[in-house]
Design goal:
Elements: E1 2-10, E2 13-22, E3 25-30, H1 66-73
Antiparallel strand pairs: 1-2, 2-3
Length: about 80
């Protein structure tokens, strides 16, 4: 799979680039014009983990609560 954006974070700078992804892993960062796929408007931030989490408690605990959300996020050994 390939993604293209004019805003890819590379070495601390946003720049145009294409990203080659295989099995969920970034394999290559390529020049923006090196592939012919539509560019996305979003910024691509390789390696960024979004830690902003909403746990539906109090509220929709029938769907998700603190216990199930934190258990789902816990690493498996």
């Amino acid at each position: 799979m390939h993604l293209r954006s004019r805003r890819v974070l590379i070495n601390g700078t946003l720049q145009p680039a294409a990203i080659q992804i295989e099995n969920g892993v970034i394999r290559k960062i390529l020049p923006f014009d090196s592939i012919n796929v539509p560019a996305i408007e979003a910024a691509i931030l390789p390696g960024l983990v979004d830690t902003h989490v909403h746990i539906n408690e109090p509220g929709r605990t029938h769907w998700e609560g603190f216990e199930t959300a934190t258990r789902a996020a816990a690493p498996v050994e």
